[in-house]
Amino acid sequence: MARTESIVEWKSKEQGARRGRSDDSEVLSNRLSAIRWLLPLLIFLFVVAHQAVELETVDKWPALQRFLAGVAVYGGIGTIVTFYTLNWITSQTKQKERAEAGIRQLNRELEERVARRTAELEQAYDELQDRNEKLEALNEDLKELDQLKSDFVSMVSHELRAPLTNINGSIELMLDDGGMDMESQRTMLRICGEQTARLTRLVQGILDVSRMEARKLEIDPEVVDIKPLMERAVENLTRRESKHRFNLPEGALPHVWADRDRLEEILANLIDNAVKYSPEGGIIKVLADRSGGRLIVSVRDLGMGIPAKELDKIFEKFHRVDRGDARSTYGHGLGLYIAKRLIEAHGGDIWVESRVGKGSTFRFTLPLADDDQLKAELDIDTSTDTSTDTSTERT
């Protein structure tokens, strides 16, 4: 605002100066126009007066005096008058030219300053537009964060209420029924164990997300045989979910360079996700294929599939695919998000291929362990075995 006012003030001053220069130029033009008419009139009157004097006086002079008088009048006075007249006209013309040059200079300066001020205003406008866009983006982010907060509170309250209700119910039944047989007690304790594990997974997931958001996620890569981790993930799921069938790769798999615990967590999340969105008794296939210097791991189910409009959101926090049926699906919408971030931390990629009603296939890549890493791991194993043998012999 202050900049605009300064431009207006300066412009008014420039216009005043231009008007002054223009007035001076107009005065000079009027003077030159007057001389154009007055000079011939003065010459005419001078000639008339001279002729009158000559008729009355000079003609009576001798010839030499008349000659000298004519030379003095026409040659001397005429020359002097003509010189000063032309000199005055020249000075007035130069003054007019200087005034016009000054006006042109003022015009150029005004145009340059207006152009400069216009560019500054345009830059200020662009900066204002950028700030408005950033504010709008921040506003949208705040709205999204507020929605995420609401979703998080709703999810946590639901995920906590269900297992706590089951645990409390089981404990109350055991306390109220003093004659409960051992099998029923084991069933109640198994329910408590399952629900406690469910709460532990929820808390662990929230802690993992917190570390990721704070950029404090750390991995400790080593040479890992992924096949036992697949078997362990399936075994842990089978303990609480015996209605699905699992197919694992046959034979040995190439070793990968990864964090063992994090890799097991990735496999558990993806296989658990496949179980949740598959029909009861469905087949879950875990496949692995080598591609160059990477291992591509696939987790395939024959479940409901994912609508195309949700494929881009499937790895976002708290996002869950609506089953569209009456069966509720447990989960807090963090498993795929955590898996994606962990895989990216390993330098790999993750993606999904899905058709509604035909199932989904989640694939991710991990770097294979190179020869130097395998050799170093073999040396460590050999050293460990040697130490163990030596210790046994001493014993």
Explain how this protein is built:
This protein is an alpha+beta fold and 395 residues long. It contains 7 helices and 7 strands; from the N terminus they run αααβαββαββαββα. The strands form 2 sheets. Strands 2-4-5-7-6 form a 5-stranded mixed β-sheet. A two-stranded antiparallel sheet has the order 1-3. A hairpin with a 2-residue loop joins strand 4 and strand 5 (294-301). The chain is rod-shaped and about 170 Å long.
In short:
By secondary structure, the protein is of the alpha+beta class. Helix content is 68%, strand content 10%.
Main β-sheet, in a few words? 5 strands, mixed
Q: Could you give the distance between the termini?
A: 90 Å
The number of helical elements comes to 7
Order of helices and strands: HHHEHEEHEEHEEH
Sheet with most strands: strand arrangement:
2-4-5-7-6
Overall mean pLDDT:
77
Notable features of this structure?
395 residues, alpha+beta, two-stranded antiparallel ribbon, 7 strands
Question: Would you spell out the secondary-structure blueprint of this structure?
Answer:
Elements (H helix, E strand, L loop, with lengths): L1 H55 L6 H114 L5 H32 L8 E3 L1 H15 L4 E3 L8 E3 L1 H17 L6 E9 L2 E8 L33 H11 L4 E6 L3 E9 L3 H24 L1
Parallel strand pairs: 2-4
Antiparallel strand pairs: 1-3, 4-5, 5-7, 6-7
Helix pairs in contact: 1-2, 2-3, 3-6, 4-5, 5-6
